[in-house]
Fold each of these.
Amino acid sequence: MADLVLRAGDRRVEAQVTTRGDETVVRVGSHEFRLSLERLDPTTWRITGEDGAAHLARSVDHAGTRWLHLDGEILAVRLTEAAARPKARARRPEGLVAPMPGAVTEVAVREGDAVAAGQPIVIIEAMKMEHVVRAPLAGRIVALRVHPGEQVEAGAVVAELQSAGTPAPGSEESVP
Amino acid sequence: MPAEATGSPRGAIRRVLIANRGEIAVRIIRACRELGLETVAVASDADLDALHARLADRLERLGPSDPAESYLHHGRVIDAARRSGADTIHPGYGFLSEAAAFAEAVAAAGLRFVGPPAAVIARLGDKTTARKLANQAGVAPVPGAGDLVARGAHALVAEADGVGFPLMVKAAAGGGGRGMRLVERAGDLPAALASAEREARAAFGDGRLFLERRLEDVRHVEVQILGDAAGHVIALGERECSIQRRHQKLIEEAPSPRVDAGLRSQLAAAAVAVARAADYVNVGTVEFLLTADGRFYFLEVNTRLQVEHPVTELTTGVDLVKAQFGVAVGATLDALGIAGTGAAGTCRARAASPPPWGHAIECRVCAENPAAGFAPSPGPILVLDEPAGPGVRVDSGLRAGWTVPAAYDSLLAKVIVWDRTRAGAIARMDQALARYVILGCGTNLGFLRDVIRHEAFSRGDTTTDFLERHFAEWRPHPPARAFAAAAALASALPVASAPRAGDGTIGARTAAWDPWDLASGWRIGGSHG
């Protein structure tokens, strides 16, 4: 059995996967799915449910994201094993990430700046649209990873933010 | 401008340069092939491997990916036409399609421009001039006040009370929502005027503004017009494009669910009156706002092929791109067989639209991430499977293995469906969207499908505030079974190293795995106990 964490946007879903012979049993929250999987080509699968109905799935794994098309739904999830999930450690700086690939048009703060929650940190432009990466909470910018004019990938860390509410490094023992 | 002065070539078209990219370039190439015309694609450095660049007979490199250095660069596009031996340039929509100076430069270079004469583009491209022209033609524009550079922005403040609040500030040279501001209260007007003027000056090199009353509960309804060089103009029915997000159309249909035969002929007459007043030639679109009580007001004229032109094609049977080439070589609408559905005489005598045939709907598929507030989402196309079947048309610029560049508009493809009834078309669109597989690049497919399935949409209860009203709180909502399938597939992938004892599943996700590896003989679950 394996415990997986799936993240799609701001949704986080835990799943337990067990294989029994040809059957894969997946538990998601209170739902249990008994599936049999048949791979028809590298990106195409036939997934048959308990009721015997077959569903065609298209799926591909790329850059840490699993893409899936199933029954008219498209899902892009990042999967991690629950056991491998790093423990949340409050004093670790939080990485602010680019939500989309694009060009950095502006870096609105400097390293060491104190910032308020919601304050613009970095502005990224793609497809004629701007996206503002904002501080999710009050704190201090401990590192800036990008410069104006630079191209960034989706998910790239653009800045690191030390939360104002957390102790300074070294004041508390880290989790072993 | 007299034709003699333009230096436009006469006679047949032989080779066409398509000064555009993406789905519209592909669509124009298709029309050229049907007409037996040779095609030249242009591509920026970001697009050398794009679908349109592959499909055309010839490819000309334009320059860097920045649109100003490539698709918007008059000189480079005209040089590419000369180099490739093209005699004609089709601008598509966007980019240079409504640039009067470009149309003039094309003519001056001895090439043919597929579109209205430069003077017509210039006249109608100035929204304040277009409003005056409509008014003189007996078609009421949206109540407002305008053209205000002569008198200065303070003159607009004085006129605002007469227009009434809330109102829209718009740029005379406007388009694409730039230089546009919604102003709720008089106190906000001076600041809105100042920022709109700055934005308009930066975007269009022209800071002139005008005011329009903000009408509530309106539909965006537009009429397709087509004129030939002999002065015949016809209307080819209306399209409703009320489903908009941030002033960008998302879903369009023909006919409008709220336009009956009587209103249709009034709209057609108004559109043709505006077109005649402007000496219109080639395809164009006259846009109106339609109020709940059936009154309509002139908005503007788009002097080009429209993104949503396919819904008109499917409900009239007229191929608008082929018609553009026809009138560009001087053919009359009669000669093109478009004017008449049996009616004798000239088109001038019958401005009214033929009745629409069935119902068509278009959805714009865009590279947007709905989970991140519809942020642009360029990316690789890892898996692509486009819908097809009876009554389903896909105008697409996509191909598997291509990477959607970040430098351009997010429109990837359009799904257009036709059926005899609106309800049938909605069901067909729902299924077409469900079958559209695009993996690797986030899209708005799920959002479009939810809009199509919304009961207010199926009632035809569509006003321009539809998305704000019904979808402001929308979030993606993949069902648990999709997560379950993703978890099962991830667990079932081939294991790179030996499976751990007692753990039949995990470890596979980290395996490097090439989606293009068709030689795979992996069997699911085969290596697990």
Amino acid sequence: MADYSIWVLEYAFVTKYHKSGVLYGAHNEGYVKLPYCYALIKGKNHVAMVDVGFNNKEYGKTLGDRFGVENWRSPKDILAGVGLSPADVDTVFITHSHFDHFGNVEDFPKATFYIQEREIAKWVWAMSLPDRMRWMMVAVDPGDIIRGVDLARQKRLFCVNGSLENVLPSIDLNVAYDSHTFGSMWVHVRNDGKSQSSDAWVLAGDLVYVFENIEGPGAVVDVDQMYVPVGLAVGSQENLVMATEAMMKSVGYEARRVIPIHEERLKDRFPSRITSEGLRISEICLADGEKSRVR
Amino acid sequence: MANRGRDALDRMTMVHRWDCPAVASEPALPPAEVADVDMAAPTVLRRPYDGLRRLIGQAAGLLLLAQASRQREIVDLPAIAVAREQWKEITAELASLNAPQGCERHAAHLVQAARLIGACLDALDAAAAREVMDVSLALDRVAAAYRLAQSCSIERLGLTMVDFRQSCCNCAPMKARA
């Protein structure tokens, strides 16, 4: 019995991303393709998103010209690939406030948003620091925070303080403080509805970029595999490793159940298809009675 | 003249919502052909521009926390005092700014944005004093300030509202990878 279907939907990509960005210490090891994705969870009369991507109107030219971000498509186009529209989305979990996760709230007119309070509170602190410390302020658009205020005014945005169980039925929010960002959140879906689930999935946000963050080569320390944190952390690599352990524990240490949305090789692990627009849909799991969108 | 300017400012911040097309369509300033801009522009403008960008971020974050939590205590946070202190510094800096050639309107917009941030912080204070916390007016002001600052952005001079340099997309500038 499965309550929810989960898809990872690619909405843009970078062809050549430096590998050291996704994997700590992978210097001079070349490039990997970096897909930009969000996740969609459907079931129990809910349609929820994990992150909303960015708005090409604001950033598209800069990202395209300077950083090689290609083939951006709107949520309307992307969600059509699984038979939905942005207006169907009732809930959005923002894993963190970087522009490519929190940068397109306006395209989801009926959704209620959840973000960690600390993600905002520490942003305020970081923005008060002098310019020489601006490294801690990167990738967040004040405009996205302003749009967040408007959502809060409409009672459509809630700040979560720590973990929150059953934010939707059998879906929990968890936090990894001072890791990739100040208040990065991961989403735990207990797909059999049980508190000790044997069919759980984790949508990891940017706490995990690629499979090697969980299943990294361990030969150097004489183990088969070990956690290797992502390359970018405003907090600490220690906190990233501890967050990885918490995510893995929540899925019974079954690595394939922790979903890294920036991982191109999801297509090798889960049924996937490439749309007519050249973007990937990966089908992580299907709820009972739900039809496949990739076959 | 001064009154007319103030009237215009009040009209923009109080009559229009921040996403009203009349404000949102604030004409982007000439995308600044860098050749036409005084070479001193990046040096002269960057400090107040970055300072305002950060102040806008602080103010927006505080508003979000205040609105989402409905806690009046937000206005007593040290962060508010820090923001006010930085606002004073930037306002003073802008008052003595000699606008570089080709960037006169950019400088004027920054001055206007700074005034709006001050007004935003005042509105947040006022909102906390009311029976029901509502940051709408403060939101209108910070959003208008954002639009003004955004209209001053000159990407090629490093004046941008989002710093992408360490972000997920940053795999070094295209030129370096070519």
